[in-house]
Amino acid sequence: MRNLILLLIAAAAQADAPKPPSSEELLVARLETAHFSESTTPNAPKGSLGATIGVDPVTKGATTYARTPAGTGLPAHWHSATEYTVLLGGKGTLTIEGKQSEVTPGSYFVIPANLVHQLTCAAGADCLLLTRRGGPVDYHFVK
User: Given 3.40.50.720, 2.60.40.4070, 3.10.420.10, 2.60.120.10, which CATH number is that of 21-141?
Assistant: First the structure.
């Protein structure tokens, strides 16, 4: 009985939580008003932040700002859906399927589903990314 009550309370809290807007309707996002919070991404470096801008109502793919601390990054991983990203600030090294590319502000990259990739933010400045996902966010880390 206690577990049922806790489950109902959790469901009610989730139902009352603000839902991100649809990314398929009129939407103007501004970096200076984004609501950043500590990243919940597995293996994210300490100090990583994220702000959801919107979610596609059909694919459930999120559009987010992400801030990664200088000199850090996520371990190599892949996703089940395509990822579309622009680097807004900082610089780093993007590795896709073992091939490295240097990225700087304004760099745009499309990472098709199932390709192993990793972005390592260079020392000196945090990396700021804007990413749209082609489907629900998932992470499959390579060991």
Answer: 2.60.120.10
